[in-house]
Amino acid sequence: MKIAFQGVPGAYSELAARGLFGVRGKTVPCDAFEDVFNTVDKGRADRGVIPVENSLAGSIHQNYDLLEAHKLHIVGETFLRVEHALLASGSTRFEDIREVRSHPQALAQCSHFFAKNKRIKPVVWFDTAGAARSIAEEKPRGVAALASEYAGKLYGLKAVRTGVQNEKNNFTRFLAISRKPLSLASQKGTRKTSVVFGAQNVPGALARILGVFASRGIDLSKIESRPDPSTPFEYRFYLDFSGGTGDAKVKQALRDLHGLTKNFRVLGSYPAARLDFARSAKRH
């Protein structure tokens, strides 16, 4: 099985892919998130793994937009604890570091570190593991990278500092996408379903939509609004809720939603992941 992810080897997305599919999966690096979708869409990979939200930095809006733009299906999810390490080459000491390269989200997640160490300038890089690889290849003096300890080991860098993120409980949620949805027969265990739709522009429209879930005791785990590109200042809504499309009460809710929404679509029904506070990115 080939699994596409954004970044270079050692990226957190690759760690998430290995967590979802294990050693049987061959990972396929992609330059951008849209490339991940296109790679799966065109059959160059069987699955894609994309981050959609971080417990500190919030949602990754681009990937929500791409989920609707492409006719792919969500077939899995996982949560990965993100632990950033300060990685440097050779004999570089912490006192020598004047610049740190990393992805903008990683830099934002370590803002307290930069506020405390004002001599160190954060430098935006396209990817955490890409920043680590650049340090290994260039060996620049006084420059380090923020990435996982796994990326450091992969590129022969040493961890000058570990756990430099603002909060210990820093998790990113990743989704697995596929050209085909999971079959109803495979819907065993705890399930989650994701949908997207537009709401009618009338008073109480969203309240009636949410009431479909409340009246049946269906738990909503996320609601996200995004601008509708086809209609200025109107919005599309993404919902995640407990249960699979094979469940009787979910079937009833979906049937009612079709009459209350515009351009309704089920993005996927898949096994719900548990948030494991003991799991660490450094263990891979």
Q: Quickly count the helices.
A: 9
Distance between the termini: 19 Å
- Uncertain runs are none
Number of domains: 3
CATH class of the largest domain: Alpha Beta
Largest sheet data: 6 strands, mixed
Query: So, CATH architecture of the largest domain?
Result: 3-Layer(aba) Sandwich
Architecture overview:
The protein has 284 residues and is of the alpha/beta class. The chain is built from nine helices and 15 strands. The protein folds into three domains: 2-81 and 171-180, 3-Layer(aba) Sandwich (D-Maltodextrin-Binding Protein, domain 2), CATH 3.40.190.10; 85-161, Periplasmic binding protein-like II (D-Maltodextrin-Binding Protein, domain 2, 3-Layer(aba) Sandwich), CATH 3.40.190; 184-271, ACT domain (Alpha-Beta Plaits), CATH 3.30.70.260.
